[in-house]
Design goal:
Distance between the termini: 48 Å
Helix content: 40-55%
Shape: globular
Largest sheet: 7 strands, antiparallel
Structural class: alpha+beta
């Protein structure tokens, strides 16, 4: 489809509203903290309210255009308040206002008026510390500050200046920083991101911001994404100009993120220390029913459980802050669900996704549910991902990955094949960085497990484009025509339809289709800034190489042919789940890095330091710091899992085994000792990469073996003696309704 900045679309949506309205939030059926938290055994059939109940009412109302974006300072909302000061919402379309003290004061005054009208009196600079994915609630940092000032006699009044809006300061040494900050050099500084809109929730105004050290080193996830976007903008415009097309405006990446989650009963969540502390179950016997019948995917979101009402409220709250959450559905695994918004500028979309995750967690708690964002909360069933649909567009609406549009707008048949060949070359050269970008701890259990692509960085183009490129390589030059295929249903009573020329390949980590690439391997708990920083950076370098060659007089066809000849070995249109493919990929020379910690270690390879330095994204110190933070994050996550397993063995499993008289628990005592020894060995290892590999081995070998012992005991233990919530309780809302326990 045609591309455009999300703010433009949202602004148009807002302008149709006759007046601002706010959503009424549903009164929670479950008081916070009211769920049973005792570790005492719960008998599944005991103390249950078995009275007949009507289906849940739609008390929160549908998500509609009423109130859409009322909590987001842009479009019609910004227009209303800026107009009091002689400005329009167009002031916010570029960052130029941040360079003018007078304009900044006007924006601050308008924001203050908007905040007061909506009952807010607090603001914060909202930023994204390194290494927060999967651990920090909401994955962001923020210091809430009052907009009140007080006179000498204590009389309060409102005050919010342009300076307060534009910048802030915090302690950089207390966040993961990879050695770039210390207690005696602790300064961390915040500056507004004018490309991501200010928004309001509850009594607080949130100002998206970049976060750097006193020396200007990036301490966050947002700043590198901005740098990579700037590099992409510069080099893409250079390349297009050399091809005879001048871009009016900017070039940037557009993304659409598919957020997968689990919703489980909160009372059961409180009886799982592993879910509470680590986000995944580190023990648990599979129930008799899993996902064998494929009866969960796209199934009705039943009003017989709290999930439907929860998802409706999530969508409502996202709409209020201007997040166009369009899609909701059930996913493959039991109790697994997905949300997806409309695509837009990657910088804005990442921010919105972080808020979506926070809203999901908060709203779930109000409905007696717990939201699990970790990649693999349960063994034996599918985990969760966050598909990153990525394309490159211009501010005047051109999608460089839409062949028909590119040819129509530019009048050139050279641009599309050259752009695609350049992207293929980037994947081939920098597959290590793509693997690094998805190396979240939870992805250890997903990649290559027949539910997510393997750790082989190939791309799928489909037979149609692949055949076209073969002709290009042979010297036949012409337009790529993506003809849609007529698909009939074998009966005249159901009309035939047109479908894309390319089929869908869900086994590829980076398939092309629908005028975009889909990075399918990203993890559900991730802040995907690094994913898009990498994609933008490697594409910028590829376009720079093309621009350099064009400016020296080489023809577009010759460059395209050369890039394909050298790099199309990473194109694989087959079954990525084929067990023989990973070995075949290595023979081809395609990047394959099975261990996430090994991929992270590539951050400081000579190739990657050179790449990031030349593109202006990371300097060498920042590369080293990022490697350190990512490895420490991995080790820390695994250590938490190990220590939690020890606690669960001592506090739950052994007492249950004894209470049920299941035999001598000595092997459990020995298991706890084994884990302690493995953790001690990790602590004694100074080299972070080596320590991370020890942690990985402990996690995927030692702890898996110990889990099998625990699960065997669980399978023999009467339910009234087992103090941990079981998979049966956690995975089937329709079988074990959370309301029956309240």
């Amino acid at each position: 489809g045609t591309l455009g900045r999300t703010p433009t679309t949202v602004g148009t949506m807002q302008s149709t509203l006759a007046q601002q309205k706010v959503f009424t939030t549903k009164n929670s059926r479950f008081a916070r903290g009211a769920s049973v938290t005792s570790t005492a055994a719960r008998v599944v059939t005991a103390n249950r309210n078995v009275a007949a109940k009507a289906m849940l009412s739609m008390s929160s109302g549908p998500a509609t255009t009423e109130g859409y974006g009322s909590g987001c300072f842009r479009g019609a909302v910004a227009e209303q308040y800026l107009s009091k000061y002689g400005e329009t919402a167009a002031l916010l379309d570029t960052p130029a206002w941040t360079k003018s003290e007078a304009k900044a004061d006007i924006v601050a005054s308008a924001v203050l008026d908007w905040a007061i009208d909506n009952g807010a009196s607090v603001y914060c600079h909202w930023f994204q510390p390194m290494g927060s994915s999967g651990v920090r609630h909401g994955n962001t940092g923020q210091v809430h500050q009052s907009m009140l000032k007080f006179s000498s006699d204590g009389t309060p009044s409102y005050k919010f200046s342009g300076e307060q809006l534009l910048q802030g300061e915090t302690d950089g040494s207390s966040y993961p920083n990879g050695g770039m900050r210390a207690t005696h050099t602790a300064g961390g500084y915040l500056s507004i991101d004018p490309y991501s809109p200010i928004f309001l929730r509850e009594d607080t105004v949130f100002i998206p911001s970049g976060f750097v050290s006193y020396n200007g080193d990036a301490l966050d996830e947002k700043t590198p994404l901005h740098r990579a976007t700037a590099a992409l903008n510069k080099e893409t415009k250079r390349m297009l100009k050399a091809l005879g097309h001048t871009v009016k405006g900017d070039v940037y990446a557009n993304i659409g993120l598919e957020q997968e989650i689990f919703l489980v009963p909160r009372h059961a969540f409180y009886r799982r220390p592993d879910l509470q502390f680590t986000g995944r179950t580190i023990t648990g016997k599979m129930p008799p029913r899993g996902q064998e019948m494929c009866d969960h995917y796209m199934a009705p979101i039943s009003r017989a459980t709290a999930a439907f009402e929860c998802m409706r409220q999530i969508q409502q709250e996202c709409y209020k802050v201007g997040i166009p959450l369009l899609t909701r559905h059930r996913e493959v695994a039991p109790n697994q669900y997905e949300f997806a918004p409309m695509f837009g500028n990657a910088i804005t979309q990442v921010d919105q996704n972080l808020m979506i995750m926070q809203i999901i967690e908060e709203v779930a708690s109000e409905h007696g549910l717990a939201a699990l964002l970790q990649e693999k909360p349960f063994a034996g069933i599918n985990g969760s991902g966050k598909h990153n649909n990525w394309s490159i567009g211009t501010s005047d609406g051109l999608n460089l990955m839409n062949p028909k549009q590119v040819a129509s707008v530019t009048g050139s048949n050279d641009i599309f094949p050259l752009v695609m060949a350049a992207v293929v070359s980037a994947v081939d050269k920098h597959g290590d960085l793509m693997r690094l970008a998805i190396a979240s701890p939870g992805n250890d259990f997903r990649l290559g497990a027949m539910e997510a692509p393997p750790a082989v960085m190939s791309t799928y183009l489909g037979p149609s484009i692949t055949e076209y490129f073969e002709k290009v390589k042979a010297g036949t030059h012409g337009a790529y025509v993506s003809e849609k295929k007529q698909l009939n249903f074998g009966t005249d009573t159901i009309p035939g339809i047109k479908v894309p020329a390319e089929d869908r390949n869900r086994t590829s980590p980076f398939p092309y289709g629908g005028n975009r690439f889909e990075f399918r391997a990203a993890g559900s708990s991730q802040n995907v800034s690094m994913v898009n920083t990498v994609l933008n950076t490697i594409s910028a370098e590829a376009f720079k190489i093309v621009a350099d060659r064009l400016e020296k007089g080489e023809t577009p066809l010759a460059i395209t042919q050369d890039l394909l000849a050298k790099h199309d070995k990473c194109v694989f249109n087959g079954n990525g789940y084929d067990p023989e493919w990973p070995d075949e990929a290595v023979k081809r020379g395609i990047w394959r890095i099975d261990a996430g910690c090994d991929a992270i270690n590539e951050m400081t390879s000579a190739k990657n330091i050179k790449l990031f330095g030349e593109m202006g994204v990371f300097n060498e110190k920042e590369c080293g710091a990022r490697r350190t933070v990512m490895l420490e994050h991995y080790i820390g996550q695994v250590e938490m899992e190990a220590l939690t397993m020890i606690d669960m063995i001592n506090k739950h499993v052994i007492p249950s085994v004894k209470a049920a008289d299941l035999g001598n628990p000595n092997k459990l005592v020995d298991a706890a000792k084994t884990i302690k020894g493995a953790v001690a060995k990790i602590h004694a290892t100074e080299d972070l990469h080596a320590a991370a590999n020890l942690a990985r081995n402990m996690r995927l070998d030692t702890m898996v073996s110990i889990r099998s012992i625990i699960d065997e005991f669980e399978g023999r233990c009467p339910p009234e003696k087992w103090t941990l919530a079981t998979y049966d309780e956690l995975l089937f809302l329709d079988t074990f309704p959370e309301s029956d326990y309240m």
